[in-house]
Amino acid sequence: MRTPLIAGNWKMNTDTAGARQLASAIASRADEAAGTELLVCPPNVYLSLVRDAIGDAAVGLGAQNVYPEANGAFTGETSTDMLCDLGVQYVILGHSERRHILGESDQDVNKKTLAALKAGLRPIVCVGELLEEREAGKTSEVIRRQFEGSLANVSEEQILSTVIAYEPVWAIGTGKVATTEQAEEVHADLRNQLTSRYNAETAEKIRILYGGSVKPDNAEQLLSQPNVDGALIGGASLKADDFLAIAAAGAAVAKS
Asked: In which pathway does this enzyme or protein participate (predicted)?
């Protein structure tokens, strides 16, 4: 049984007071999500503040990006060693906003993924298609290309420390949500790709998250799909009540 991972991507939001309040609220009610793994991914400037606000609660700490080099003249970047020094456990890589706004390629994502794994961080590697790609019937082709490129040279041992997130670009922050059938179809395809790359036993251990306008009122239906192992949540993760309600839905599915 794969433990559902409910991850909050705060993106470029909050301030000092807001980050502390949100992290504290989630930490104080983490028991509401027993049976799931909770994770919050604040902006890098608030990582230590959020770490302290979480304290000993059952909430993990994640970053939203990392640079693949260990150190050096890379102004404005953050290394894996820096993240580890702050107690970070996970890092989101290849999010569509970085791919399509900031121009990251599959090769860029792959370099970051390998660097994160080498440092002992757990990468959450995002894949997803644009609306025009879905409408053109290219979803499977796009997902396969991103999967193969972003996870190139990742060993079987390393993939066991990796999470994959399917985020259809057309559903991120738009209010549109993939139907349960659409989500499950892509998740099942990703599971099959893992099986082909590694083996069925390994593929069954990998968590594949869904992201894209996940809210309390659609979470249970999405999370009940056989190959959906949690959620990568954007806007709803900025409200403790909504984030924990989604986590509670995941816990209910896990217990059923």
From this structure: Carbohydrate degradation; glycolysis; D-glyceraldehyde 3-phosphate from glycerone phosphate: step 1/1; Carbohydrate biosynthesis; gluconeogenesis
Sign of CA dihedral 245, 249, 250, 255: positive
**For the segment 103-135, what is each residue's pLDDT rounded down to a tens digit?**
999 999 999 999 999 999 999 999 999 989 998
Query: 170 among the known binding-site residues?
Result: no
Which range of residues forms the domain containing residue 173?
A: 5-255
72 known member of a binding site: no
What distance in Å separates the CA atoms of residue 226 and residue 203, rounded to the nearest whole number?
13
149 is in an annotated binding site: no
pLDDT over 90 at 175, yes or no: no
Query: Which has the closest alpha carbon to 250: 227, 219, 204?
Result: 219
pLDDT at 238: 98
Considering its fold, how many domains does the chain have in total?
Answer: 1
Q: Please check if 212 is assigned to a binding site.
A: no
Angle between helices 240-255 and 16-28 (to 10 degrees): 30
Catalytic residues: 95, 167
> Which pLDDT score, from 0 to 100, does residue 256 have?
81
